[in-house]
């Protein structure tokens, strides 16, 4: 393997990693705040992509790329809040919330995917690219679309990280995640913060959907496979810090790219799972995990 | 409107289906502080959690500064309580509104937010102050009261000692510009030295004009702080003792256990 191939595969891995980072962070926001795993996240990705397509595509409303992205992000925030109110809020204080929410969010995912199928049909669609042409850097040529995607994801994640660390609402969200009762006693609006967390996660899913829709074909179940990868990322990296799923996402992306190159496309998931199992045997709380969020 | 700061009428509550306390009535005015004293496991903490809206009261009313904090009326019938409480039954109290009204509860053994720094925790706290007081002044007050909190402001809560954590917890309460501060066993499990330090701080807080409800096992400490002592046992207030006739620890033991402790 020469240097050029190595760089090429690495670039592919980084792009994959950026996508996974976006999805895994969306999952992690809900997981760390509400303590549940949102199985509807994949459907959120698909719904976000379809909303963006509906607004931006020349075959539909044709309002342009930016309007599509913006409409999708805002729209998915609302969808996320509604899903929270219907799927999670009624069970919030049940002792078996984790199990209940698995079923309710799976149900939500099925309903959303079927809804997309009914509204837009099963025919594959594609979103327009962010940028056309190619970019060359250090002797590797990747499409400008993928380069833009990489940059956008990093910017979005930095903004999100700063929001969670510095903004009052972000700090309040972290507070609620760590001790619900103390947060209540401090006068924080817990249901509102939960709703914001869910909406934010759905908005991140929408962004992931927009990016995914520009590099692959869209279908109502387009989110299922990336959701599984994001799941691996979250478990692989742990959620002790905001950054741990992000690092894990890039590692998973790189592993996948190299596994695809060496072992072939069909073996890549198997290699990924094998590595994940090996990591979890040695370090059950995840690669970067320090403590595990215990389930009450 | 009566001059009472807090009026609790015939309050009852517990954790479904177990009732923990009943028939609790008390009134306090804004220039007094009260203490609750009683054996462990007799419902003091549950009563305070009901007062701040963490759990719903079963019966009775809580009136704070002339404003009724609970939704009036009886709680739902048993048939509806047996369904999913959050979906079928309306909550009778909202802890957010309680805190924003100025009734601030510093819970027992407060764990706060383990992964947040002291500074971040204190910056979240003014949410409950609802415009009363400037956060900057409050922060200064907390820092002068507990210099240790200032020293450790960049450390995560989980690296603090129990005493430091308790200081932060009280500081969080102060940041909310309380009109009534509830301290549930503020000196629980602390060394005598820290106990002494915290007691002094709590007396300073009282001197700034914040009324207190204090639960503690140390009657001598309570005596220096409060005007009325309520004995709380078997889930209700069994006796009300004014400051003048406040008994010693020995006498209280005798009252509670029916015989003179040796």
Description of the structure:
The complex is a heterodimer of chains A (296) and B (262). With 296 residues, chain A is mostly helical. Chain A has one domain (24-237). In chain A, 71% of the residues lie in helices and 3% in strands. In chain A, strands 1-2 form a two-stranded antiparallel sheet. The longest helix of chain A is centred in the N-terminal third of the chain and has 32 residues, at 3-34. By secondary structure, chain B is an alpha/beta fold. Helix content of chain B is 34%, strand content 24%. Chain B is built from eleven helices and ten strands. Chain B has helices at residues 44-51, 78-81, 85-88, 95-101, 118-124, 135-145, 147-151, 162-175, 192-207, 219-223, 249-257; strands spanning 4-15, 18-29, 34-37, 57-64, 67-68, 103-106, 180-184, 212-215, 228-233, 236-242. In chain B, the strands form two sheets. Chain B has a six-stranded mixed sheet with strand order 6-7-8-3-9-10, with helices on both faces. In chain B, strands 2-1-4-5 form a four-stranded antiparallel sheet, covered by helices on one side. Chain B is globular. The A-B interface holds A 89-94, 168, 171-172, 174-175, 178-179, 181-190, 240 and B 52-54, 84-87, 95-96, 99-100, 104-107, 110-116, 120-121, 123-125, 127-130, 172, 176.
Structural category of chain B is alpha/beta
Class per helix and strand makeup of chain A:
mainly alpha
How many individual β-strands of chain B? 10
Rounded Rg of chain A? 19 Å
Estimate what percentage of residues of chain A fall within beta strands. Answer: under 5%
Based on Cα principal axes, name the global outline of chain A: globular
Spans of chain A of at least 5 consecutive residues whose pLDDT stays below 50 are none
The oligomeric status of these chains comes to: heterodimer
Strand % of chain B is 15-25%
Q: What is the H/E order of chain B?
A: EEEHEEHHHEHHHHEHEHEEH
Kindly, what is the distance between the CA atoms of the first and last residues of chain B, rounded to a whole number of angstroms? 48 Å
